[in-house]
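Is this the right way to post structure tokens for a design question? Let me know if I should format differently. Anyway, here goes:
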């Protein structure tokens, strides 16, 4: 499982619930959850990869209950602090989602938002999907938002150079190459101001890979919906 510590440090404003950018993401994600999740109110969701709580807030704003889990302790502690100060009721835990610390059939649903799949190899995702199947109730659903990297590249939509605004200024993301034997794309992140650079190996995912693993781990009913105005970004709704 890839942690991407340097990326999250450089782009902290995207995940900070205290900041203006973070609050705007809460608003946008709240609308996204409203559009794609159809579950009874008061359903209990497991928010997988909750980070500092932005996705958890979006789930809560739609009238659901939520437990957030993330492997990054600093992000979870920031979320707990923000939730305490704003009187938000939700459990937040630091943990490895390959070994979810809850009994069988605990949750009504689970969500993976913000395109988390590049963090995970196929074996990681197989373990994660198996665990999710274990902890959600029969008939429960799993919502996944992800970028189909393979489709993006084949459609000619992949950008080899991207400039993004981060916590410490602009950074350049340069694609160094695709590793088709191990299934990842390497991106080099460069800070033009300081000359600092680092590499991220992002796992490549496509619909057929997601579909295969979900079916093998106990999700027979799977629907793919294209995100509006984003031709290779997809929403998966899988039912147990």
């Amino acid at each position: 499982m890839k942690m991407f510590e340097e990326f999250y440090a450089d782009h902290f404003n995207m995940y900070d619930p205290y900041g203006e950018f973070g609050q705007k993401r809460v608003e946008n994600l709240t609308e996204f959850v409203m559009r794609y999740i159809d579950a009874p109110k008061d359903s209990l969701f497991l928010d997988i990869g909750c980070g500092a709580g932005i996705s958890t807030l979006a789930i809560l704003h739609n009238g659901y209950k939520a437990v957030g889990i993330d492997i990054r302790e600093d992000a979870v502690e920031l979320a707990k602090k923000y939730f305490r100060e704003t009187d938000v009721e939700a459990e937040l835990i630091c943990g490895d989602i390959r070994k979810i610390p809850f009994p069988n059939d605990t949750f009504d649903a689970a969500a993976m938002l913000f395109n988390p799949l590049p963090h995970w190899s196929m074996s990681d995702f197989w373990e994660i999907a198996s665990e999710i199947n274990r902890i959600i109730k029969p008939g429960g659903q799993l919502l996944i938002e992800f970028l189909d990297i393979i489709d993006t590249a084949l459609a000619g939509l992949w950008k080899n150079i991207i400039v993004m605004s981060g916590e410490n200024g602009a950074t350049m993301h340069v694609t160094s190459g695709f590793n088709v034997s191990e299934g990842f794309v390497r991106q080099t992140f460069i800070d033009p101001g300081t000359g600092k650079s680092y590499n991220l190996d992002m796992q490549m995912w496509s619909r057929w890979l997601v579909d295969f693993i979900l079916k093998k781990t106990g999700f027979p009913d799977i629907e793919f919906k294209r995100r509006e105005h984003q031709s290779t970004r997809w929403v998966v709704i899988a039912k147990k």
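Format looks fine. Someone answered above. Worth noting: The CA atoms of residues 43 and 226 lie 25 Å apart. The first helix runs from residue 5 to 10.
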